[in-house]
Amino acid sequence: AERRVAMGAASQRALADKQRQKNLKRFKVGSMLDALVRAGFPISAGDDLTDHPATAPEDGAGAEAAEAGGELLHLKPLTAEEVADHHLWPVAFWSGGPLREDLARTLMFDYMEGSRGVRSLQGGLAESDMQEFTGALVRQRAVGWRYLIGVKSPTSKRCFVHEAEMFHVTAKRREVPKDETDAQENQINYGERKGKLIEDLGTVKKLRIARLQAARKSREHKVADFGGYQEEMKARAEDLKSRHTPVEERDAEVKRRYLPEYTKEAQVPGEVYRNSVHDIAPPDLLKKESNTFLDGDLVEFLQRDAGAQLRALADAEAMPEKAREELWPCRTRFATALLATRARAGLRAKDGDAAVRLARLFGVANCLVALVQRGPLHRGGKSLPQGVGEICGIAPDAGLAIYWHAKFYDEILGKRKVRQFSGRKSLYALLIWSIQSLSPGLSLEFPPSVERELKVPAGQVKSALEFIGCQVTEDKKEAGGKRLHAKLEGPPKINFAHYDRQSKKSKDKGGK
């Protein structure tokens, strides 16, 4: 196989030489090699078309002008006699791209690139001084280019075209310093040469791929030091430890967010939420809406005997839950349960003024019940202050409606007036208002129908009572659930079991 390849190469070489001789005879031009030698160029011809630098002479003029590792080519200009005799010397350069502008101004010839069609540049050599052109290394030049030399006399319109012979020009090269640092700077690796060639000849796709490969090679890879990494992990652990918030602080933040102002250091249960009622409904705002919360029928009902009240309330509780008109004058089952608790304790209004004051307090409780019921449903829980007035049945521009909108609705990012309803805040406020202002002995008793009326999930009323500091017990079963008995014992306590469950869930989630 190797012998056949060698024989084929020799045959092709012989055919090329034969064709070259025919072209020389046909176009009546002499050998370029002979012409360049006569012009004074030190040229060594060869059939090997692979790129390799020629051996530079030891010394010579102009060698000092070349950069380290570069090549200096001397072009001998035409004399006046030669120009007069119309001597045109064909010259071919073996290069990987277009000629430089300064070289093209001196040498004009026709050339053709094999892969991109034919281009023509007509002209001739002009008289000029000695030109020196410093070029790149020969090994950086590309292969695969074909050049056509056009020879034309100034007095003739005919141009003889001849394919240039491939030859190496003996260049004068300045010696490269032996220092390793300079050698590394001058050395260009294969990837950079390939990228340069693609920039000159390649397509857009190949150019993009070459740039990506070059960027990938230039990317720095850092190896982490295990010791340093361990120290970094320790510092991170200390930072996370410092960020850890104790359970006490977390619980205090939750209570500050959802509960009205209360006395944490109170020793008596009645002192815990004494000032909270003013935070829920300020007296000055409540005074302006006093007639709104006043119901004459409820005032008359509150002055009845406790036994008569209890019998009427028992009949009302026995009615179906949908028969809201049977709850009159209580309006809500929540108020009915409060009145029943007071009647069982034997409480009644002492006089008409006391009944009026008590009726107004029940009116506030019924408004809070309506807010818990309809707050999440009214416009999807997002409302203006006017919406609170519509829900509670008071004037839309009332000061109490504006206050409750700011109290029981949370801010929405990017919204200045519209706020989001908070069910927990309103439910806690309703229970605290009822215990502190209306219940006998700071205790409450709720049938299962109250939780359904408030439209809250099962068990949420019990959890809310425990959250505000009540001791809650469940009585015998009734239709649809259990009756709740709650009594305020003191300030709200920390539910450590709740935070332990949260911590366990977070650990289990992180482990997965």
TrEMBL record:
GO terms, biological process: DNA-templated transcription
Gene Ontology molecular function: any one: DNA binding
Keywords: DNA-directed RNA polymerase, Nucleus, Transcription
Pfam family, one: RNA_pol_I_A49
Domain of life the protein comes from: Eukaryota
Annotated coiled-coil segments of the chain: none
Biased composition (Basic and acidic residues): 478-490, 498-512
Record GO cellular component, one term: nucleolus
Region (Disordered): 478-512
Major place of residence: nucleus
Subcellular localization, as worded in the UniProt entry: Nucleus, Nucleolus
Family: Belongs to the eukaryotic RPA49/POLR1E RNA polymerase subunit family.
Protein name, entry field: Uncharacterized protein
Organism: Zooxanthella nutricula
